[in-house]
Structures are given as structure tokens and as C-alpha cells.
Amino acid sequence: MQFLPIFPALIAAYVAIRYTPARAFLQVYIPVLLLLPMYFRWVIPVLPDPTFEQATILPIAAVFLWRHGKDWKFSFADVLIVSFAGSIGLSEYLNTNYNEAQNLMFDMVASVVFPYMLAKGLIEPYQLRVRFAKKIVMMLLIVSILSVYEFRMGITPWFLMRHFFPGQGLEWVTTFRYGFARISGPYGHAILAGLILAVGFRLQRWLEWSGAWEPRFKWLKWLRISKARLITMGIIGGIIMTMVRGPWLGGFAGAALTAVGRTKHRQRALLLIAAFIVIVGIPAASAFYAYASVGRAHAKTPSQETTAYRMELIDKYVDTAMKRPAWGYGRNTWPKDPTAPSIDNYYLLLCLMHGLVALVLLLTIMITTTYRLVRVEIRLPVTYPLGSSLGFTLAGIFIIYAVTIATVYMGMQTIPIFAIITGWSEGYLLGVRDAGTPASPFTFRRVVV
């Protein structure tokens, strides 16, 4: 039954051909991405082994390129994304062999390049931003509700799919903290679920502030609480059940930048944030360094021990990474220190696996896109209702990623979601550049979803 990923792929192909790639992307790909695990693969002899997400996006991308490829408007972000994906594939080829490089390059194209391409080419051009955000939020609300079972029983309901994929997904197990199960949903680990739900929360707050939801659920009209607030509470509940400090910290940092879009005086708000970083952030960073530098042996609490471990990773692995700085050691062939086998810092892990080239490209994508979003929003008139500024919401999501992956691993669905947010941001920025308001990155405009 490992061929199960073929079914959403066939549905996606039918919808993309019969209707539009935009409809297939929204109605088929996004639910598959957010509701089905990526640690299950369709094992195909000789060929790369696709996940549900990868199998689903291939026909959508093919139809999109067939119909609209010649009209694509290139931008520098395209170069960054393709270079990032290519650098990882090249690193794997230089460090291992062609077969491993082929498999990883397929992963990068299907889970980075294609999600970026479709997000850039479909969300803003087809005026899907509200529908797209709603689809993500509703899928994550479903995940949060279903994950109550895992929080209570310690077993994720998605593990039932292991019967169809024997021998797969065994490395992902439910972890516990404070006596409670940390929910992971279909994302493999609680830290990944926490990051994804934090992204969903930011999109939900944008929808709520924009007045995008109807007042009540049709089947819950008797409740006094609004539909938007109920959804927000559901997503927050999911975030709390992950019990992961890294995504929580990233969420607070992202909220600080997003809050600038809730003010009329944006430049003043940015200056206040900068002043806060200087006045409070520097002393806080110094105190944190002292807190984290005691070493695991001298830690007084489990939290301090975890923090000290992350600090020790820098000491243990930076010199190793610098011995092969350009292309690293490969995805599964980097040298592990038996005293620190898990690297809870994606920047360091990426440098070890694929070198400084991949790391610099990732940082460039995050920094330049965030900067451009903030710069554009500062120059645009204040949007009403306050908080409906899409640029600050997307910039806040990049901050969530930037902070979170400094403390945790980035994998599974967090990678295509990052690519989607990057593509959406690029489509938004191109629209502002070309028309003064969000428009199409194509030479045509066609709304048919």
C-alpha cells in the first residue's frame, strides 16, 4: 500500500487539467501538505521516492508550466531559491554519490522550487490571499483538534498510517514534557508542529484583524464568541499543546514585528523596537550567555540543561564545519560527536551538511525578503483596518522562522511552507512594484478559481 501517494497526485492532476492549477494548489495540495505526514514515502525502484506532498505537487507544477511557463516574470528571488536548492544537491553529489544526490535534488525541487513557484505565480495573481490563508488556518485548526487525542493519550492518530507503510516513520515518536505528551500532528515532531502552528497563528491574526471571517460558524450560531476568535483560540490551543519553547520564542519575536502593522506610526514603532533591542536586548543576551555557558554538568534545571546543550553544540561542531566550509559533509555523512548527536540549531546543521554556500543562501533569502517587505510597507499608505497589512504579517513569519530554527531542526512540512511564504512574498512585492498595489508577476491577469 505504499503507492497511496498516487491517489492525491491523480486528483491534483484532474483538478489542474479540468479546472486550473490554482484550484488544484488550493483545494488539493494545501490539505495534503498540512494533513498527511511527509515521513511516509512511495518507494519506487530506481526512481526517487515521493512523499504525499511531493507526488501531489508534481502534476500541478507540470500543468502550470505547460500553460503559463512562457509568461513567467523572473526576479532575483527565483535565482536565490534555485541556487539554494541546487547548492544542496551539488553538496550531496560531491560528498556521497549520484543516487543520494538524485534523491535529495528531487526533494529540493518538489518541496522547495515548485512550492515557491506556485505560491509566487498563483496566490497574488489569482487574488487568492484570503482564501489561501483561510485554507491553511482551517487545516491547522483540524490538526489542533485531532491532536487533543495525542495530548491526552500520548499517541498521534497519524501513526495509524504506518500499517500502509511498513518500516517507515519509526524514528518519529511522541515526546513528553511536564508529564504531558507534546503534540506533533502529521509533522513528525513537536518542534516542527510548533513552528507550523505559529505560522498559522500569524495568518489567522491577519485574517481576524482584516475582518475576513463571517461573524459565526453556521452550525455554532448559539455561541457568543465570534468565528474568528474561536479559530484563534483553537490554534493557540494547538501551539500550547506542542510545549516547544523555540517556536514560542520565535512567535513572540514575529509578533513584535507584525505589531508595527497595527500602528499608524510605523517608522516610530520600528525605532522603538530598535531601541528596545539595544537597551534591553544586549543586556538580556549577555545574561542569557552566562545562563547557557555553565555546561550541562552544572545546570540547575532541565531548562538550563537544554539551553547549555545548545551552547555546547557551537563549541563541538563549529571547528568541524570549518574544515569543509564550502560544501559540508553531506546529509547523512557529517561526523557526529557521540556526546552531542542531535544538533538543535538548523543553521549549524545546514552548515555541517551542505556548507556555507547553502547557509549563506538561506540567510540571504530570509534577510532580503524581510527587509523588502518592511521597506515596502513603510512606504505604502497605512492600511485599514489596522493589522490588515499583509507585508508585515509575512515579514513576521520570516522572523518566526529565523528565530525558531536557531534553536530547533527545520524539516518535513516546515520546508515547503517556508518556500510557499517566500513565493507569496515575492508575488506580493512584484505586484506592489509594478502597480503600486499587489498584482500579478505575470504579463497577464486572469482570475479563475
| Helix/sheet category | mainly alpha
Largest sheet: 2 strands, antiparallel
In what range is the share of β-strand residues? under 5%
Could you state the order of secondary-structure elements as H and E?
HHHHHHEEHHHHHHHH
What does this structure look like?
The protein has 449 residues and is an all-alpha fold. It has four domains: 1-72, no CATH class; 76-122 and 295-381 and 409-439, no CATH class; 130-262, no CATH class; 265-292. Helices cover 64% and strands 1% of the residues. It contains 14 helices and two strands. It has helices at residues 6-18, 21-35, 52-68, 76-95, 98-122, 129-153, 190-210, 227-242, 245-258, 266-292, 302-323, 346-379, 390-404, 414-435, and strands spanning 175-177, 180-182. Strands 1-2 form a two-stranded antiparallel ribbon.
Q: What secondary-structure arrangement, pairings included, does this model have?
A:
Elements: H1 6-18, H2 21-35, H3 52-68, H4 76-95, H5 98-122, H6 129-153, E1 175-177, E2 180-182, H7 190-210, H8 227-242, H9 245-258, H10 266-292, H11 302-323, H12 346-379, H13 390-404, H14 414-435
Antiparallel strand pairs: 1-2
Helix pairs in contact: 1-2, 1-3, 2-3, 2-6, 3-5, 4-5, 4-12, 5-14, 6-7, 6-8, 7-8, 7-9, 7-13, 9-13, 11-12, 12-13, 12-14, 13-14
Looking at this protein, list some descriptive labels.
1% strand; 14 helices; 4 domains; 449 residues; two-stranded antiparallel ribbon; disordered C terminus
Q: What can be said about this structure in brief?
A:
The chain is an all-alpha fold. The chain has helices at 6-18, 21-35, 52-68, 76-95, 98-122, 129-153, 190-210, 227-242, 245-258, 266-292, 302-323, 346-379, 390-404, 414-435; strands at 175-177, 180-182.
